[in-house]
Design a protein that fits this description.
Layout (H helix, E strand, L loop, with lengths): L8 H10 L16 E2 L10 H17 L6 H4 L4 H13 L6 E3 L3 H12 L8 E5 L4 H13 L4 H4 E4 L9 H6 L5 E7 L11 H10 L3 E5 L11 H4 L3 E4 L14 E4 L18 H4 L22 H17 L1 H23 L5 E2 L12 E4 L3 H10 L2 E2 L1 E3 L3 E4 L8 H16 L15
Parallel strand pairs: 1-11, 3-4, 3-5, 5-6, 6-7
Antiparallel strand pairs: 2-8, 7-8, 9-10, 10-13, 12-13
């Protein structure tokens, strides 16, 4: 889509007046004078999340063990209740969704279930730009199955160091490949892969497809009825704003409900047999059969609250603003910052990018440190990327404009030279 923007603070303020989501800012805790651009890594706290967390604490405080039976078993079936709220974000049925564990543990669950190697078909396709935890999980599964990484892992190479070409992925789909695990959005470059195309082509070759939605869910609407993946995983603390380390999620396509889950736990049992305490696993008939242990209630409660906002606003509205405000940021970078050595490392086209902008500069690390001392919270990724995420639910256009003004001053006045090149642990 072609966007029409202008320079100047007044234009930014006018965009805020026209923004249909501007008032959702009031439902989040924003620090006065701070520009928060790191929602792609850890989303901000909402008042809805806070209320939900405090409520469940009060239920536990007053009910004790009876918490599992109050409100018609709402908390015993907490994953099912959250699935009802999550289904619209990926256009799936609620009984195809579970809320549990972490992204990494859920990847292991998916691999344990769907990686069934044979003598002829045993290879897994990944990409070289994926987040490390996905690759660690895949390599550990190959090790557990007795395969050498160099023999069984196909790693799709990037042509430019930023993006992955869909054609390169599809060119490696062969009869010796059993499974593909890819990110929906690449964390460093914000590239949005053509999930439907890749999944469809893989299925023609009989290959199982799993997607990691960590950098897209809550920012990009997905249509799993069309994409038809075999499984997917995601975290809840980025665009979903459910809190640090919040419980993750998993999708199991209903066509696989008859499969035996790879890793078994007692919450994967049918409700009617769970408390019979049999050592014979009686797997639930839908995605709930992939559940493991008792729900992490305090980790799930904030997600319960904040999902009310997502369902009230709708993913299409969120995506519309996300694309518009990131396009505005890119416009300002092009027109105000390019002469200072800044450039954009993410795809420009709406259909090829997620919810954050990848700002590149030779001094990106020290600039990111200077930003924090200017009350701007970005994050940095090696070797030269400052990730900036204007979040549709709580970032204003005025904040984006002020951010660019600060970025300009940091380089123009050489503020970054006051900082060391020595890396710190978290940034």
């Amino acid at each position: 889509m072609k966007y029409e923007f202008k320079d100047g603070l007044e234009f930014a303020k006018e965009l805020d007046k026209l923004d249909k989501l501007h008032n959702t800012r009031d439902r989040f805790y924003l620090n006065e004078g701070e520009i928060y651009m790191d929602g792609n890594s850890l989303g901000l706290s909402s008042k809805d999340a806070e209320e939900s967390l405090l409520n469940i604490f009060n239920v536990w405080r007053t009910e004790g063990i009876k918490i599992w039976g109050v409100e018609d078993g709402r908390y015993f079936n907490f994953s099912k209740n959250l699935a009802e709220k999550l289904k619209n974000l990926i256009n799936a049925d609620a009984n195809e969704i579970i809320v549990m564990g972490s992204t990494t543990s859920n990847i292991h669950q998916g691999l344990a279930t769907f990686y069934k190697p044979t003598k002829e078909r045993y290879k897994i396709i990944v990409d070289e730009l994926n987040f490390p935890t996905d690759i660690y999980a895949v390599k550990s599964m190959l090790n557990l199955k007795g395969y050498k990484i160099e023999d069984a892992l196909i790693e799709i190479k990037s042509r430019d160091g930023r993006t992955i070409c869909e054609e390169d992925i599809m060119s490696k789909m062969a009869d010796d490949v059993v499974l593909i695990l890819l990110p929906s959005v690449l964390y460093r470059s914000a590239q949005l892969l053509d999930m439907e195309l890749i999944t469809s082509e893989a299925h023609k070759h009989g290959i199982v497809v799993g997607w990691d939605l960590c950098h897209s869910i809550g920012s990009v609407p997905h249509d799993f009825k069309k994409i038809d993946p075999d499984f997917a995983v995601w975290c809840s603390y980025k665009y979903l704003n459910a809190g640090p380390g919040a419980t993750a999620g998993m999708y199991i396509n209903r066509k696989h409900f008859n499969k035996s889950t790879g890793l078994r736990g007692w919450f994967g049992s049918k409700d009617e047999s769970q408390f019979l305490m049999s050592h014979d696993f009686d797997q639930d008939k839908d995605a709930n059969g992939w559940l493991l242990g008792t729900h992490n209630m305090f980790s799930m409660a904030p997600l319960d609250g904040v999902l009310n906002i997502f369902n009230e606003v709708g993913m299409e509205s969120i995506r519309t603003k996300s694309l518009h405000i990131t396009a505005y940021l890119m416009y300002l970078i092009d027109n105000k910052l390019s002469k200072y050595g800044y450039s954009i490392g993410n795809p420009r086209e709406d259909h090829r990018r997620g919810g954050h902008v990848c700002l590149e500069h030779d001094e990106a690390y020290r600039i990111s440190l200077a930003l924090r001392d200017n009350n701007v919270i970005p994050d940095y990724r090696e070797p030269n990327v400052i990730r900036l995420a204007p979040i549709a639910l709580y970032t204003s256009y005025e904040e984006v404009y002020n951010l660019v003004e600060i970025l300009e001053r940091i380089v123009k006045d050489k503020e970054f030279e006051n900082y060391s090149l020595k890396r710190v642990t978290v940034l």
